[in-house]
Amino acid sequence: MTQEKVREAETGLGRTWERLKSDHYGVGGLFVVVCFALIAICVWIGLLGQGWSEVSGNRWESASSEHWFGTNLLGQDILQRTLFGTATAFEVGLIVTVCSTILGTLMGALAGWYSHSWLDEIVLWIKGVLDSIPFYLFAAAVAFALQGNPWAMHLAMIISFWTTTARIIRGEVMRLKQREFIEAARAIGLPGFITVFRHVLPNTFHILLVQGSIVFVAAINTEVILSFLGLGIKDGVSWGLMLAESSQEVLAGHFGNFVAAGSSLFILLMGFNLLADALQDALDTRRAII
Amino acid sequence: MNTSGQQNNTSLLEVRGLSLSFHKQTQAAVDRVSFNIRAGNILGLVGASGAGKSSIARAIMRLVKVDSGAVLFNGEDILRMNSQQLMATRQRIQLVFQDPSASLSPRRTVEQTLLEPMKHFVIGDTRFQQEKIRETLHTVGLDHDVLQRYPHQFSSGQQQRIAIARALVTSPDLLIADEAVSSLDVSIQAQILQLIQTLQKEHGIAFLFISHDLAVIRQIGDDIAVMFRGQLLEQSPADLFFSQPAHPYSKTLLSFAGDVPPLRSPGDTWQLDRGSSKAGRSSNCVFSRHCPEKTPICEQEPAIYKIDHKNQPALGLHCVKCHLYDEARTHDN
Amino acid sequence: MSTPALKVSQLSIWFESGTDRKYAVDDISFSIDAGEATGLVGESGCGKTMTALAILGLLPASGVHVKSSGIEINGKDISSLSAAQRREILGRDIAMIFQQPGTALDPVFTLGQQISAVYRRHCGGSKEQIRQTMLGSLEAVGFSEPQEIAAAYPHQLSGGMRQLAMIAMATVCKPAVIIADEPTTSLDSSTRALILQQLERLQTLHQTAILLISHDLTIVRQSCSKVMVMYCGRLLEKTDCHSLFSHARHPYSAGLLSCIPRISDTRPSAINSIPGQVPAMADLPPGCHFAPRCPRAEPVCRQSIPPFDSENGQYVACFKPL
To answer: In which domain, by residue range, is A165 found?
Structure first.
């Protein structure tokens, strides 16, 4: 099949952006994610959502111009809480994604480069053990062991999520190891770890990017469920907590919490999924430009 | 400065009795192979795919484990060197691969790729390295503006030139070209062959040129070595090889490789080789199953016989692994 | 004059990006008679494979534009068939032999299953009939033990054997036209000879028309009676093999022929090559695409596209042919 030799953009990034631009769903997803990210940043720097714990109205007020989504059981403004929840979601997402990706990449690269050796066996064994522990039990155990430390949830997620990234990276590294440009590096006597960091891993960035967005989504989802179970964040508010609150409220006819948290969650995750799909297509190096 | 050295007798690379096999197979991938390359000379190593040619290249570069044998580079055995000596030797021998797009690191610019060997071997300072890359690019026929680009932005011919440039920055004495032109179009192949010829004539670089295509080797080879199923069956100076091939396999190869390859006649007993590994190493001549000149003595593995060309002493080494050239035997008849 | 087995008229293939059109194939026409083998030669990226895929209708629907004034097999136009109609003719009236038999064969089915599937799809019959035909097709390509091959999976065979199995698969329904795309690349010379022998058998026994696509002029010379030279999407020369190899008229054809390495008693004094490189699809020069590299180029060559000039059935698109 004819592959085009001339590229309009020089760098990989430029190429990817061009392809992404043509995928309308992907651009939509990107837009959604960027909007939410901006909200999160505004919350962090103190511009929005600061009144999340303030009691600013009567309990269970319905939507009005003062409280766009109404108030909750304690009279707190649901909109403020939703905005703060955005920041929580991003915080959890970013910390878990970055840490689990780094850990997973290192372990995966180690296992892949020294594949079929004792090092590989150990990593695979650890992975196997961690994968077979039911996650929510594990999260509860970690929370218990750390006696209510606010980072318990993040830690539990990081420890569980790195394994998927590691498996994927291990496979990629094993595949790339066979390629001639790696042989060329070995032929001049380049040591293993330099070869892995300089030549192998940069060729996995496209996979990490897609995998990262998947982990981000998983982290936010997981936080929602953990908060629902009472194992989630302690200081602050999250959509998960709001949904937990709303489980009782909805029966009494108060939908503010549910609508606000539920739709925010849905829209953000939908946007992220569309973006991840589009990124995967745009980064697919095997596709001929047709 | 060495010319395409018929007169030059210095052995740059000497492979002696090299054997290696892959862990799951009982049949050796390379079976007691010996040959030598003189400084400034091009040795064309030819054979069908799977004959073991690439394995030899990798064994020389110490990229695969060797079972036995020696690889002498300027008299020193590469296989027994310590890491310091090996590092010094690796600067002198470089490898060029078959698929240029696969042999260049996709996320590194051309400049980074060319600088890497010099930085690794600590050759010169930054200024020297920059000048060296520019000089090398000029030698291979590329402009300076390729430096900031990535491999995928070039055609395969240009990519192969970049790969050759990478091999040249350390000023090697020997370049191993493993099917380096086999995946290129014929006009680009011709350009790369011209480049190789220039490198030999003007820079005195020796080549181990591996290919399955005799016609290509004819363009640049000074000596020819023929491999079949891991064994070296003949080594001969080029002109002699193409006019009077000695080994029956060489003759078969030449008959297929001519301008218009003959179609098989109905009576031909050439079998399609299934390529499955045979149990153990058999003691007969490795080519005997297919040999048109087979005799009962071919049940025994032949030794390597040297052929003397008394009327042409200037020619290089000519040896054949075939009973037909056993002078002791022919004298008896 | 009898109807040609394959006739392609004014085929063009292009990509659109914004207002630009990039032509991968630019207005080519040719025909092949029954029992005749024509070679389509050119270097990588010149559009040979795209031409084959366009004839078969296998190019993706979005992003690529295909236009022709007709693609006919034995007089029947196939260029505007629906997907269902096209599935009927593929394998039955026209078939393709691909370059990489390793990837063109399904690794999870035996060869017998794959070949039978093709036959069953187009011709049907009882299970026993299908099996006999399948074994017959394997035997016809030269396998002395067809049952063994039928029970084998692709990875168990060598490259040459896989290619022969591909030929069996492509010919089991005895199509009128076969397109062989680089069928002998990555095969060594002895196996190559076997494959070419099979193609010749198809021509003589079944009057199959063969379009042999290759960058290797030597195999085209051996197996084809006619040859077409392609460069940057255009046909530069169409003639019979003998004439091309003895006296090529287009400077590109002549240049290409001079680059082919040959075995000779004495080492060649100089290696010939064509200076410069093939232009990228986005940067095709105006007028004759070969002009920038042509030793005989004149100003008119850079301004207008040379039309086909024919002499004794030999066509050459050049203002200053040799």
So the answer is: 14-283
